[in-house]
C-alpha cells in the first residue's frame, strides 16, 4: 500500500528472484480456507447466538450464554411485535422507506436526466452543489433542519421524515444516475423526437427504461441507506407513535435495561435483521454486482 | 424501477415526419420546470438552506427557546477550543479515523487476496475454490442496520450474560469471566472500533475482490512466470494496481469513522467510561437536543465538517505524494 509501486520494468527485474510458487500451492489454499472460515465464524456466531437467545426466557438469557433454550419461546416474538411496538415501527419504516424510495428515484432520475443531457446556464453549478451536498456531514445541517421542519409543521410527522429522506438521498441518486444518462446514445433521443414524442414522453417511454440497470443499483443502495437511517429519525421524529425500526430498536434496548425482557429484545433484533438478510441471500449475486458497480466508479 | 411504463425501444414504430427544432413549446417548458424545479426545491429547502443557516447560527448564542439570538462572532469557536469534553471527542474521532480505516482495509485486502489468488494450482494464478460462501457470509453485516449491529455486540460484550466472556473463560482465560469490555476505559474504545470494523470489512472485501478481478490476468501470469510468490504478488502487484480503490475506501471509511454516531449510541450512549468513546456527533446531539444550545452545537457541526474535509484532503495529498506512478501501468 505504501511504497511498492510495480511497473513493468520492476517485474522484469524481479525475474531473477528465487521461485517460490507452485509446490506449496495446496498449502496456501488450505491456509486461505482456514483464515476465511475463521472470519466467517466471527461474522456468523454473534448472529447465531442472537437467534438462539431470541427463544430464551429472560432468566435463561441472564444465565449461562452458552446453553440452548429449554423450549422455543415463540411468545418472545409476539411480545416484541406487540408489547414492544416493533410491529408498529416496522409498518412505519415500510411506509417511510417505501415512499421515500419511490419519490427519490423519480425525482433523482428526472434531475439527473436534465443535468446530463441538456445544456443551460447553471447546469454545472447545480451539479457541483449536489456533489457538495453529498460530502458534507448531515450533522452540520441537523439543527437548522429541525427548525425548517418545525416551521413547515412537518416536525414529528411521517411526511416530514419522508421528504427529508428524499432530500438527503437525492444528491447520491443524481450523482450516480448522471453518468448513466450521459452514457445513453444521443441517436435514440433524436429518433424519439423525430417520431413526434415530446420531452415528457421521450423520458418516460424511452430514456428511463434504458437506464434501468442503473436505476436498480441505485434503488438497492438507497433502500439499504434509508432502512439503516438513524440520525434523521432520532432528531426529527421524536413522537414514539411514529418511530421507525432503527430508532425503535434503540429505544427498546435502552428501556430493556430497566424493564428487562431480553428474550423479546433478541427477538426484535431477529425481526429487524431477518427480512433483509433473506432478501439479500436470494439476490446476493445481483446486489454484489450493484455494489461493486457503484463502488468502483 | 418503479415508474417505468412499457418500454418502447427506439421510440416506437410510428413515424410522423415533421422534424422538431426545439422551440419553447408548453411540453418543453413544463418539462424543464417539473424535472429540474421539483428536485431543486426539495434539495434547496431541506439540504442547502440548513447547511447555509448552520454557518450563521454557529456565530450566534441562539438557544432556541429565548426569543432572540445575538451575534457573538467566533465566541462559540473559542469556547469549543477550551471545552475539554469536546476536545476529548475530537481526539476520539481522530483516533477512530486513523485506526478503523487502516485495520478494515488491511483485513479486507487480505481476505480479498486469499479469495482471488489463494487457489491451489500450478502455473496460472487461480481464485480459491468454493469461495462464494465466504463472500456471501462476509457481506452479511452490510445489510444489517448499524444500530442493530451495535445492539448485538453490546449484548455480546455484556459481562455475565454475553457470549464473549463465556467463550473466553471456557477456553481457559478466566480473568475475562466477568469482564466489562465496554465498561472499562481501557477496552471500551478498542471494543467499539472492533464492532465498526466487523461491520465494514465484508463490504470492502467484496469491493476489492471485484477490483482485483478487474486486473488483467496477464499481469499475474507474468509475475508468476518471473517466480514471484503469492505474498510478493499481492504486495507488489495487487495493491499498487487497485490503489485508487484503496484511496476511495479510505475516504469513505474515514468519513464513517468521523461520524460513528450510530455505533457509539448503541454501544455506550453516554460516551463510555471517562468519555473514552465519546465522539463529536454525540456531543453535538446532546448539546443541541438535550441542552438546547443550538448556536454552540452548530459550531460543533462546523468543526466536524472541517475535520471531515481536512481528512479527505489529507488522503488525496498523501496518495498523490506517495504514488501516482501506477497510472502508467494501469492505463
UniProtKB/TrEMBL annotation, chain A:
The keyword DNA damage does not apply. Residues 1-25 are annotated as: Disordered. Pfam families: BPD_transp_1. Keywords: Cell membrane, Membrane, Transmembrane, Transmembrane helix, Transport. Residues 90-283 form the ABC transmembrane type-1 domain. It is a multi-pass membrane protein. InterPro entries: MetI-like, MetI-like_sf. One of its GO terms (biological process) is transmembrane transport. The keyword Acyltransferase does not apply. GO terms for cellular component: plasma membrane. It is found in: Cell membrane. The chain crosses the membrane at residues 32-52, 89-115, 127-149, 161-181, 215-236, 256-283. It comes from the Bacteria. Belongs to the binding-protein-dependent transport system permease family. PANTHER family: ABC TRANSPORTER PERMEASE PROTEIN MG189-RELATED, ABC TRANSPORTER PERMEASE PROTEIN MG189-RELATED-RELATED. This is Carbohydrate ABC transporter membrane protein 2 (CUT1 family).
TrEMBL record, chain B:
It comes from the Bacteria. Pfam families: BPD_transp_1. One of its GO terms (biological process) is transmembrane transport. One of its GO terms (cellular component) is plasma membrane. InterPro entries: ABC_transporter_permease (IPR051393), MetI-like (IPR000515), MetI-like_sf (IPR035906). It is a multi-pass membrane protein. Keywords: Cell membrane, Membrane, Transmembrane, Transmembrane helix, Transport. It is found in: Cell membrane. The chain crosses the membrane at residues 29-52, 96-120, 132-154, 191-212, 249-266, 299-321. Residues 90-315 form the ABC transmembrane type-1 domain. The keyword Transport applies. Belongs to the binding-protein-dependent transport system permease family. This is Carbohydrate ABC transporter membrane protein 1 (CUT1 family).
Amino acid at each position: 500500500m505504501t511504497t511498492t509501486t510495480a511497473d513493468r520494468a520492476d517485474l522484469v527485474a524481479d525475474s531473477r528472484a528465487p521461485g517460490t510458487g507452485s509446490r506449496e500451492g495446496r498449502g496456501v489454499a488450505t491456509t486461505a480456507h482456514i483464515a476465511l472460515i475463521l472470519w466467517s465464524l466471527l461474522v456468523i456466531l454473534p448472529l447465531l447466538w442472537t437467534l438462539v437467545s431470541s427463544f430464551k426466557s429472560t432468566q435463561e438469557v441472564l444465565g449461562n450464554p452458552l446453553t440452548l433454550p429449554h423450549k422455543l419461546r415463540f411468545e418472545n416474538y409476539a411480545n416484541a411485535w406487540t408489547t414492544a411496538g416493533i410491529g408498529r415501527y416496522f409498518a412505519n419504516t415500510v411506509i417511510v422507506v417505501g415512499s421515500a424510495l419511490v419519490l427519490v428515484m423519480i425525482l433523482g432520475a428526472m434531475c439527473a436526466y436534465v443535468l446530463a443531457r441538456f445544456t443551460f446556464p447553471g447546469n454545472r453549478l447545480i451539479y457541483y452543489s449536489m456533489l457538495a451536498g453529498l460530502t458534507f456531514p448531515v450533522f452540520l445541517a441537523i439543527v437548522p433542519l429541525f427548525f425548517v421542519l418545525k416551521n413547515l409543521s412537518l416536525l414529528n410527522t411521517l411526511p416530514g421524515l419522508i421528504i427529508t429522506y428524499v432530500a438527503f438521498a437525492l444528491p447520491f441518486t443524481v450523482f450516480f444516475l448522471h453518468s448513466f444518462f450521459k452514457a445513453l446514445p444521443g441517436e435514440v433521443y433524436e429518433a424519439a423526437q423525430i417520431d413526434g414524442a415530446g420531452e415528457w414522453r421521450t423520458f418516460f417511454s424511452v430514456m428511463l427504461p434504458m437506464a434501468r440497470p442503473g436505476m436498480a443499483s441505485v434503488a438497492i443502495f438507497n433502500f439499504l441507506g434509508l432502512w439503516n437511517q438513524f440520525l434523521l429519525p432520532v432528531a426529527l421524529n421524536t413522537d414514539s407513535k411514529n418511530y421507525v425500526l432503527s430508532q425503535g430498536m434503540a429505544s427498546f434496548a435502552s428501556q430493556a435495561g430497566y424493564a428487562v425482557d431480553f428474550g423479546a429484545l433478541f427477538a426484535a433484533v431477529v425481526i429487524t435483521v431477518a427480512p433483509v438478510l433473506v432478501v439479500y441471500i436470494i439476490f446476493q449475486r445481483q446486489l454484489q454486482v450493484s455494489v461493486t458497480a457503484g463502488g468502483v466508479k | 424501477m418503479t415508474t417505468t411504463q412499457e418500454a418502447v425501444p427506439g421510440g416506437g414504430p410510428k413515424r410522423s415526419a415533421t422534424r422538431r427544432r426545439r422551440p419553447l413549446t408548453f411540453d418543453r417548458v413544463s418539462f424543464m420546470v417539473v424535472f429540474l424545479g421539483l428536485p431543486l426545491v426539495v434539495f434547496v429547502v431541506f439540504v442547502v438552506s440548513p447547511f447555509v443557516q448552520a454557518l450563521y447560527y454557529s456565530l450566534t448564542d441562539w438557544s432556541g427557546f429565548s426569543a432572540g439570538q445575538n451575534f457573538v462572532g467566533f465566541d462559540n469557536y473559542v469556547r469549543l477550543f477550551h471545552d475539554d469534553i469536546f476536545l476529548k471527542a475530537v481526539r476520539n474521532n481522530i483516533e477512530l479515523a486513523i485506526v478503523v480505516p487502516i485495520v478494515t482495509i488491511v483485513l479486507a485486502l487480505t481476505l480479498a487476496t486469499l479469495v482471488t489468488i489463494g487457489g491451489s494450482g500450478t502455473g496460472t494464478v487461480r481464485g480459491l475454490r468454493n469461495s462464494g460462501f465466504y463472500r456471501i457470509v462476509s457481506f452479511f453485516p452490510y445489510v444489517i442496520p448499524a444500530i442493530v449491529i451495535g445492539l448485538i455486540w453490546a449484548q455480546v460484550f455484556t459481562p455475565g450474560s454475553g457470549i464473549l466472556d463465556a467463550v473466553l473463560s471456557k477456553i481457559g482465560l478466566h480473568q475475562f469471566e466477568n469482564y466489562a469490555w465496554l465498561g472499562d476505559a481501557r477496552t471500551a474504545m478498542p471494543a467499539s472500533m472492533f464492532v465498526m470494523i466487523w461491520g465494514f470489512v465484508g463490504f470492502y472485501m467484496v469491493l476489492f475482490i471485484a477490483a482485483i478481478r478487474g486486473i488483467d490476468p496477464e499481469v499475474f501470469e507474468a509475475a508468476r512466470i518471473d517466480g514471484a510468490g503469492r505474498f510478493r504478488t499481492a504486495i507488489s502487484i495487487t495493491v499498487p494496481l487497485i490503489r485508487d480503490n484503496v484511496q476511495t475506501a479510505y475516504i469513505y471509511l474515514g468519513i464513517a469513522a468521523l461520524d460513528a454516531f450510530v455505533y457509539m449510541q448503541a454501544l455506550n450512549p453516554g460516551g463510555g467510561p471517562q468519555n473514552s468513546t465519546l465522539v463529536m456527533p454525540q456531543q453535538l446531539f446532546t448539546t443541541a437536543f438535550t441542552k438546547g444550545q443550538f448556536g454552540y452545537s452548530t459550531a460543533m457541526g462546523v468543526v466536524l465538517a472541517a475535520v471531515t474535509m481536512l481528512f479527505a484532503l489529507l488522503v488525496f495529498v498523501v496518495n498523490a505524494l506517495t504514488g501516482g506512478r501506477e497510472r502508467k501501468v494501469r492505463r
